[in-house]
Specification:
The complex is a heterodimer of chains A (about 850) and B (about 140). Chain A has about 850 residues and is mostly helical. Chain A is built from 24 helices and four strands. In chain A, the strands form two sheets. In chain A, strands 1-2 form a two-stranded antiparallel ribbon. In chain A, strands 3-4 form a two-stranded antiparallel ribbon. Chain A is globular, with a radius of gyration of 27 Å. Chain B is mainly α.
């Protein structure tokens, strides 16, 4: 297709008609919910997370009402425990993290000039998982069984079933389910940023929002899995009595604190960086210039991501760890202030150097920076261990964390709401209401949380339902309560503003005169995402590239058509965004929703100890996933390649390291390996805690070296056969490849038996002591992975037999080989640890 | 991911060869990864020694060596990046979609990360070198 062809209005109209038909959302009262387009799923996701935020906010208001006066009895202590636990858990797991994912699902394809993210059905699956898990956890408060152990659920009180009820299980299983959807979103966003950029958008031209999202999604990959590992141990203790955190049987509650905070501290930056990413989009628009110090922002994002993993023990300064250990974490906590400061200075410098337009979104940005800086400064204070010993578990910490989260997450999101509302709805929100709401929020936040610094230093402990009048903090608490009402009024004004939006007129296209790609969106939005995928030559193409908008609109760039009636977008290379493939995307489908329901049933039924029903749910989930994969992935196209315009012809099918599916498998397995390393960490942690580890005695003697070595050998055989299957298949020896896949599956199944034989034959009793428990856990983890590996090998064999995988179209076998690499590593670590560790044999 | 070839007046020798090196997202994270390894080395060795032996590690000189090695790698990575940031060709301010500007961007980012990592390694080393006991 030449430039010339696009001059013909009739051709353009025909192309638009085809694109419109392809991207037409499903209709009908039920089937409209089977849509997978990012502009639908992202909006549902955002509204749901916003709803959870309002709910959690109401919980906070009840707490503030209870604390308004000394010795109040508005709510009982038990209810108060549920209120603060659910408030914290919801704000973190059901609002802050999902909101970033939701906003990114809406914005990222627009920012990258893609028609959609690479795995739209995965986004839909993530959304339905989030909705089900969120409603399950939230609803518990209406039955008086909400979790009540604090948002970090410290054992041993929470693991002892005589001291804590169903709430702990609901927290653990409900939120584990949501963690799965977070990891799914991280996979989607990483592959999206790395592989779905428009041609020419090299790494140095990427919008900073995309840089931040890439960094944050990678952080999720390394931060959430340790918590998932912790959740596994936690539920094993609650449901089966395996004593991981029970001091009497060799366990240690500190292990939970490590695993929780290895997640929990990066989490703070996981919710902060996406909000500051909004600043990086808003500030240049209203400073009317390029952002100053682009590489400095990248430094700040990447540097923060690394350092944030060296801070977790600063939540544990009072647990009695050696002071020398605290010093390392104190030092890293101080160091992280450097990159955080750098990005704030970059924004200030940009505003200073630009011609500032004082818009409503910019008001939110500057106001939240002021609040965040106060929270950051108290953070530097509590990073110093001796100060933290004084302030720990007091309202000083409550003040600190709320300053950080309100200034670093919540108010920036409101700013982003005012900035991006025209992008989503085509209508601007009211400047007057927005500014009024801002001042209520700004004054309310300070009035609520500033006095808490003093009530904390005067001795008010966190999480206690009331306080005596003699403490002399009644006035401070009344101020905080009044402030919370002021803040809530601000939120209510924002809600009113949103509710009035449908009555307002459409605003012009690109109402803020911004320079980045997402503002190509038209007020009368089409569902196709972008009319043609542009060639990018600048960080602010709308400002810098001549006739850019016109060329996009007239389909003069790439992929302006959908001749074959398929949803498509362009896959490009990681560093330089050279086009490599036209990828076909999944369309509307009921499978993601059904899979989420099936998986949700596993978690929910387990909560109520309905194990057989949960097993049925697990089998159903497996069936759904296989059905989804079989019918929707690695489809052999009807032709090898297609033209995308300007004389470029791209393949429709690629496999291996340049394909998006391969990357998704690799990234998922990185998360899986991180969770596994959390369990291995547990083993070595217990070793440091005991004089004799592994112990000896009946039910305690290790599994010996023989069976673990057999299991390792068989696992490695399965791995090698998969590699051989990939290679023989590539060379056209299909029969040999099929035989190798079948043998590989046999090896994987044998590895299950050999793996379990070790602890089974030596009679390791997991309820007796933490050593047998952790050995069993490692073995179960590894053999379960062998089972999944066998299913994958058999699936690939079936694909080959069905003609859906051939020597040329071999994505399936290449992707499962990636799984097998990680499987081999897992088997090596597990069996070497349990079989060869000194004393185990 | 192809090798970068600087255009314009080329200088021979080490600098030229350094500019030919492959620069990727992986090289970008070398300096902070060194920080992470150094951090884990210091923390884990001290924590394990204090927990299992009840005493601070005896060979404190290992912390000095470990820190020097870490800083040397960071400095090397930073120096390579610094040379690459001065790749000739293409006009300032180097924010275009050319080969050289993309190389310069990754190099500047690596250099900045090397600076941050250098400081952060010192931060971590200070307790290991100065507080040589487990209390």
């Amino acid at each position: 297709m030449s430039l010339h062809a696009q001059d013909d209005p009739a051709l353009r109209a025909a192309q638009e008609e085809r694109l419109r038909a392809v991207w037409k959302p499903p209709t009908g009262w039920f089937f409209r919910w089977t849509d997978t387009n990012n502009n639908q799923v992202g909006v549902w996701y955002t509204l749901t997370a916003f709803g959870f935020m309002l709910f959690a906010g109401v919980l906070a208001m009840i707490m503030r009402a209870q604390l308004a006066v000394p010795e109040n009895d508005l709510v009982s202590p038990a209810t108060f425990n549920q209120l603060f636990t659910l408030h914290g858990s919801m704000m973190m797991f059901l609002f802050a993290v999902p909101m970033f994912e939701a906003v990114s699902i809406i914005l990222l394809p627009q920012l990258l000039g893609a028609r959609d993210l690479p795995f739209p059905r995965l986004s839909a699956f993530g959304y339905w998982s989030f909705l089900i898990g969120g409603v399950f956890v939230t609803g518990s408060i209406f039955f008086n069984v909400a979790p009540d152990g604090g948002w970090f659920m410290y054992p041993p009180f929470t693991t002892r079933t005589d001291l804590s009820g169903l709430g702990a299980d609901i927290w653990m299983l409900g939120l584990s389910f949501i963690e799965v959807s977070s990891v799914a979103a991280a996979v989607e966003l990483i592959v999206g940023v790395l592989k779905c950029r428009p041609p020419g958008m090299r790494l140095n031209l990427m919008p900073l929002y995309a840089w931040y999202i890439l960094v944050v999604a990678v952080m999720i990959l390394f931060a959430f899995p340790p918590l998932i590992a912790g959740d596994v141990l936690f539920e094993m203790e609650r449901l089966l009595g395996w004593p991981f955190f029970d001091q009497a049987k060799g366990g240690d509650p500190i292990l939970w604190q490590h695993l929780f905070w290895i997640f929990g501290h990066p989490e703070v930056y996981i919710v902060f960086l996406p909000s500051i990413a909004l600043f990086a989009m808003i500030v240049p628009t209203f400073a009317r210039r390029h952002l100053l110090g682009y590489p400095w922002i990248v430094l700040a994002a990447v540097g923060t991501a690394f350092l944030s993993f060296g801070l977790w023990v600063h939540h544990m300064f009072t647990t009695g760890l050696p002071k020398i250990s605290l010093a390392f974490f104190s030092a890293a906590s101080e160091a992280v202030a450097i990159p955080t400061g750098i990005q704030i200075f970059a924004f200030i410098a940009t505003l200073w150097a630009g011609r500032v337009v004082w818009s409503t979104p910019l008001l939110y940005v500057t106001g939240s920076l002021a609040i965040f800086v106060i929270g950051g400064l108290t953070g530097v204070m509590v990073a110093i261990a001796p100060f933290d010993w004084q302030a720990h578990d007091t309202y000083f910490i409550v003040a600190h964390l709320h300053y950080v989260l309100i200034g670093g997450t919540l108010i920036p999101l409101f700013g982003g709401l005012y900035y991006y509302w025209p992008l989503i709805t085509g209508k601007k929100l009211s400047d007057q209401l927005g500014r009024t709401a801002f001042w209520f929020l700004f004054v309310g936040a300070n009035l609520t949380f500033f006095p808490m610094h003093f009530s904390g230093l005067l001795g008010m402990p966190r999480r206690v339902f009331t306080y005596p009048a003699e403490l002399g903090i009644g006035g401070l608490n009344m101020a905080s309560t009044i402030g919370s009402w002021v803040f809530a009024t601000g939120v209510a004004i924002v809600c009113v503003d949103l509710a009035l939006s449908p009555r307002r007129r459409k605003s012009p296209r690109n109402p803020w005169a911004a320079g980045t790609l997402e503002w190509l969106a038209h007020p009368d939005d089409e569902d196709w995402g972008i009319r043609s995928v542009p060639l990018i030559e600048s960080r602010y193409p709308i400002w810098d590239q001549t006739d850019f908008v016109k060329k996009v609109d007239e389909g003069r760039f790439f992929l302006p058509d959908a001749e074959e009636g398929r949803r498509e977008t362009i896959v490009t290379s990681v560093l330089d965004a050279r086009p490599v493939q036209v990828v076909r995307l999944g369309g509307p489908s009921i499978k993601p929703m059904l899979t989420a329901i099936a998986l949700g049933s596993v978690f929910i039924l387990t909560t109520y100890h309905l194990y057989w029903a949960a097993l049925v749910g697990a089998v159903a989930t497996l069936g759904m996933v296989l059905w989804w994969l079989w019918t929707g992935t690695a489809e052999i196209p009807e032709k090898d390649s297609k033209p995308i315009g300007h004389g470029i012809e791209l393949p429709l099918y690629i496999s291996g390291a340049s394909a998006s599916g391969w990357w998704a498998m690799f990234i998922t397995m990185m998360a899986d390996a991180t969770a596994f390393s959390g369990l291995v960490f547990g083993y070595f942690f217990f070793w440091t805690r005991h004089e004799d580890f592994p112990p000896s005695g009946v039910g305690l003697d290790g599994p010996g070296a023989f069976w673990p070595m057999v299991a390792l050998a068989v696992s490695l055989a399965g791995w090698l056969m998969t590699i051989a299957a990939r290679e023989t298949n590539r060379r056209g020896m299909v029969g040999a490849a099929r035989a190798l896949l079948a043998l590989g599956a046999v090896a994987s199944l044998a590895a299950i038996g050999a793996g379990l034989a070790g602890p089974w034959l030596s009679g390791l009793a997991p309820k007796l002591h933490v050593y047998p428990a952790i050995v069993w856990t490692l073995v179960i983890w590894t053999t379960a992975h062998a089972g999944v590996g066998a299913i994958m090998q058999l699936y690939t064999l079936a694909r080959s037999l069905a003609g859906k995988m051939t020597p040329k179209y071999d994505a399936d076998v290449r992707n499962i080989t990636v799984y097998q690499h990680f499987m081999a590593l897992t088997a090596l670590v597990t069996y070497a640890t349990i079989g060869l560790f000194p004393g185990a044999a | 991911m192809k090798n970068e070839t600087p255009h314009g007046p080329e200088r021979r020798g080490v600098r030229h060869r350094l500019r030919q090196l492959r620069v990727t997202l992986w090289t970008l994270i070398v300096p902070p990864s060194v920080w992470a390894v150094h951090f884990l080395f210091c923390y884990l060795w001290v924590a394990v020694s204090c927990a299992k032996l009840g005493a601070f590690p005896r060979f404190t000189v290992a912390f000095v060596i470990g820190t020097l090695v870490a800083e040397a790698i960071i400095l090397a990575s930073g120096w390579i990046a610094w040379v690459q940031t001065r790749t000739p060709g293409d006009p300032a301010p180097h924010d275009q979609g050319t080969d050289i500007d993309r190389l310069r961007f990754l190099a500047v980012s690596t250099l900045l990360l090397a600076g941050l990592s250098f400081v952060a390694v010192i931060f971590t080393a200070v307790p290991a070198l100065m507080l040589t006991d487990c209390r």
